[in-house]
Amino acid sequence: MTSVDPAHSRRRVDRAGLVIAALLAGLAAVLVWDARGLPSTGMYGMGPEAMPVVVASGLALLAIGNFIDALRGNLPARESADPVPVVLILVGLALLIAIIGFGGGFILATSALFVTTSAAFGRRAILADSIIALVMSTLIYLAFDRLLTLSLPAGPLERLL
Amino acid sequence: MIDTFAALAHGMAVAIQPMNLLYALIGVFLGTAVGVLPGIGPALTVALLLPVTYKLDPGGSLIMFAGIYYGGMYGGSTTAILINTPGESASMATALEGNKMAKAGRGGPALATSAIGSFVAGTIATIGLAFLAPWLVDFAVRFGPEDYFALMCVAFVTVSATFGDSPIRGLTSLFIGLTLGLIGIDKLTGQARLAFGIPELLDGVEVTTLAVGLFAVGEALYVASRRHHTEEKLEPVHGSLWMTTEDWKRSWKPWLRGTMFGFPIGALPAGGAEIPTFLSYSTEKRLTKHPEEFGKGAIEGVAGPEAANNASAAGTLVPLLTLGLPTSATAAMMLAGFQQYGLNPGPLLFAERPDLVWGLIASLFIANAMLLVLNLPLVGLWVRLLAIPQPWLYAGILVFATMGTIAAKPSVVELSMLAGFGVLGFLMRRFDFPIAPVVVGLILGPIAESQLRRALAISLGDPMTLLQSPISATLLGIALIALLAPFVLKGLGRFKANED
Amino acid sequence: MFQFPARVIGAAVALILAAANPAFAQQLELKLMAPAAPGGGWDQTARSMQQALVASGVARSVQVTNVPGAGGSVGIAQFVNGAKGDGNQMMVNGFVMVGALAMNKSPVTLEQVTPIARLTEEIQVIVVPANSPIKNAQDLAAAVKADIAKVTFAGGSAGGVDHVMAALFAGAVGADAKKINYIPFSGGGESLAAILGGKVTAGISGLSEYEGQIKSGKLRAIGVTSEKRIAGSDIPTFKEQGIDLVIANWRSVVAPPGITPEQRKTLSDAVEKMVKSDAWKEILKQKGWEDAYLGGDAFADFLKKETARVTDVLKSVGLVKS
Q: Is pLDDT at C9 greater than 70 in this prediction?
């Protein structure tokens, strides 16, 4: 737990803030690098490279602003975060993408996401949740596929229907 | 004028026959049912259900079509309020306060003010359409690129209302959005920017993918990360399920103001629904007597944008009917629908086929009223959804959120972007950066850029063109006042304080 | 909803009501992509095909999707990547896409798609607002020669037929085509507003898109690009006004890469049947499009030649770096 008394935290350099400032500066650099690769075209007025440079300048200024805020420790106090549920949900999303990517179909993919998210929020009844998820996503699939004739990704389970 | 009323009365008489009322009800029901599905915005809802109307006589199908249209729009707002997944960019502003209200047990009033606000705005805007269309369109075509750019400037200044407490963090969010808006093919020269050779990125970033990722996925991650502090308790109904007298008092002005933003801007060929909804949100935030509630679920923040959204939809009918120009996806669908009923929008429509025009307008009235009849009783049912236990509720929300993307674009790149935006939304919440400006930047940035570059190309690079157009000069003046007013007022306040 | 905020989806899919009817079971359910914003030429072509395919009973349902952006580069990228091997999808395309892909150095090219058929050809027109001092093509030519930068042309996407035509017009009247001031707009709606509002000197588009405005007197057509005057029209050609400018905007339909020969035949047959249907003929008449049907390998050949020709034109006017 890092919940500290505010008077103390005020003075401390905020490391996360420094990282944010660095990321913004990096983003600005990417924009400029990308804009330099754009060929100048015969257009009157402003070319395609102007806006990226404007946005990059803004990002650079904001990087400085965030940097100063971080040095002064001016960021709002944060409560501690529990990484486990976050990672669980992200695993669920990764599973979903992988299953869709490898042709596992909509039902399996969304069921995986449902079960991991439910577990992230403290449920431990994986079997019951899996059944709920399968039934729900099958119904959704049928509704889209049969009623609306909109195609959702099909995998082994969908072909059985 | 007398003729107009007579024609409208005749249209009404046709529309109000019992069978037609029934068709309107069926249309609204189907439209709402399909519109609440994730990934299906109003345009697609109309597209999906259009064939159903073919089986009816022209009068009946037109009225059912109008019902589907309103039902689809309302369905999108329902998901924005209940599960924080705006189905289209126009209901983004609704999600900001609407979902907060739902979480505080005020989902009932939020849905009600949204439905009634839509009705009020739709009705006023339809009257506006009936009587002002020919004049309004003359004004609308006078809007040139420089004027649109100036309008964007007004929008940019006013969105600072979504910034939260720290200007630096608000601007940081906005610039992240502007950066995302640069991704893809440049409209004016066809050059690819920030695409890194990935073809999927040539499309640019989809507004709904970004909004759903930041709002729904980011929120789920954030709530999950904080479960050990306080178990979030959702009460579906806290206080009254219906709008209280206080709610009515706080809603009616935002409805009217939202309509004033939505209808004229919607009538502009490149106006759209996003700008009026943001303008309405910002205005309500400035004018409210309860500024402390904004960000926690202020009813004005739902009433205004919802009215603006609906009014702008009616506004898009102005160029559609008078010029035959579909200026939005939904309008393009309506054009397809009208053509089925023998209505060929264009400069001559109002003169040649007044019967069809007035029949359509009467249908819109009836369908709009039917929306209230059907959906107000359903409000109680909808908010019960929030009584689902938290693990299932969030699991369901995530499934629905990703499903929208899967249905629209089942690509690994798109889903990865959704997940990436979810993480971004989580981190931004964690480090207290406001979310909405990112989406605002993505929507407004590219429009502002294209219009500015068009204006400068026409003027051969002379920036004075922005001041030479009276419309543009006026709008830039408004933007400047809006930008400086807070500082001036603050200065005056300090001055007064010193006097005391 | 502007910046046609990205995805725009259109048109009809039949419901279960129809699916339950076994008589329809054998028919095609097509997805047709219009790689442009609603309201433009490709969009109209796609929606007309939808109408004709369904009305003539060739397909049970046709769903039109709009994927706007950069002269179809966005659409074709999505089409080639997303619809690979899908024998139920087609995409409308045409002249504009050829130029856009060349200009964008697009990783996706028209060689990757499976050609199905050329459908129509449309004559192009240059219009000016009704109150413009420019009365005919020679007036415009004089203005272009006087100061080419000050003559602004509004039209469709960069490198499209409108853009090429502006360059050809400048070249034909003896001005430096590289210096044209061409303002691309997305979708016919926005450019029409810019012309009606007098923001630009002239507008370039397909004749049918502005026909309503020309007839109602809000726009003045100063010339069309056909060889001979169109029957029943009083708009003079550029040729008869002494300017050698002949160009047509053809539109075609293609299938995704990687489909089987059988799938290709099914689609080709469906399109051929559609083209011969009364519904299609009626639409052509209504929209003022010239039937330019060219199927099978003849079209594949045409596509190849046209690609080479357009790229040459674009290079000669400096739109594509040679």
A: no
Least confident residue range of B377-391, C132-146, C279-293: C279-293
The complex's ipTM works out to 0.90
Please list the residues that pair with C183 across neighbouring strands: C154
Query: Which residues lie below 8 Å from residue B155, measured CB to CB, with a gap of 6+?
Result: B275, B278, B279, B444
The pLDDT of residue A7: 45
How close does chain B come to C28, measured CA to CA in Å? 16
Instruction: State which H helix or E strand residue A67 sits in.
Output: helix A50-72
Cβ–Cβ < 8 Å for C36, C68: yes
| Start-to-end CA span in chain A (Å) | 50
Residue C68 has pLDDT above 70, yes or no: no
Q: How confident is the model at residue B205 (pLDDT cuts 50, 70, 90)?
A: confident
Q: Hey, are the CB atoms on B172 and A129 less than 8 Å from each other?
A: no
Residue A1 has pLDDT above 70, yes or no: no
- pLDDT score, position C21: 40
- Site from C3, C13, C78, C84 to mutate, B interface, most B CB atoms within 10 angstroms: C3
The model's confidence at residue B248, banded by pLDDT at 50, 70 and 90, is very high
Neighbours of chain A (3+ CB pairs under 8 A): B, C
Helix (H, G, I), strand (E, B) or coil at B332: helix
Q: pLDDT-derived band of residue C45, with 50, 70 and 90 as boundaries? A: confident
How many Å lie between the alpha carbon of C6 and the closest alpha carbon of chain B? 6
Query: CB C19 to CB A42 under 8 A?
Result: no
Q: Above 50 in pLDDT, residue B214?
A: yes
CA B409/CA B403 separation, integer angstroms? 10
Cα–Cα distance measured from residue B185 to residue C73, given in angstroms and rounded to the nearest whole number: 8
Instruction: Give chain A positions within 8 Å (CB) of C13.
Output: 148-150
Structure tokens at A66: 């965030």
Distance CA(B226)–CA(C134), nearest Å, equals 69
Handedness of CA B341, B342, B347, B349 (dihedral sign): negative
The alpha carbon of residue C67 is apart from the nearest alpha carbon of chain B, in Å, by 8
CA distance B400 to A137: 10
User: Which has more pLDDT, B123 or B344?
Assistant: B123
The pLDDT score that the predictor gives to residue B208 is: 79
Q: B164's torsion region: left (phi>0), alpha (psi -120 to 50) or beta?
A: left
Nearest of C307, C296, C297, C306 to residue C271 by alpha carbon:
C296
Other beta carbons within 10 angstroms of residue C225's beta carbon come to: 25
Query: B58 Cβ partners below 8 Å, 6+ apart?
Result: B341, B342
User: Which residue from C minimizes the CA distance to B309?
Assistant: C1
Full DSSP string of C111-152: TSSEEEEEEEEEEEEEEEETT-S--SHHHHHHHHHH-GGG-E
Integer CA distances (angstroms), C10 to A100, B29, B85, C68, in order? 25, 21, 22, 12
DSSP per position, C252-313: EEEE-TT--HHHHHHHHHHHHHHHHSHHHHHHHHHHTPEEEEEEHHHHHHHHHHHHHHHHHH
* Chain B residue closest in CA terms to A39: B191
Kindly report the number of other CB atoms within 10 A of residue C142's CB atom: 11
**Chain-chain contact of A52 with B193 (C-beta, under 8 angstroms):** yes
Q: Choose among A44, A148, A149: nearest Cβ to C29.
A: A149
How far apart CA B342 and CA B381 sit, in angstroms, is 39
* Helices within C71-228 (DSSP H only): 73-82, 95-104, 137-146, 161-172, 188-196, 207-215
Residues 198-227 of C with CB under 8 A from B: 199-200, 212-213, 215-216, 218
φ/ψ of residue B282, rounded to 5: -65, -45
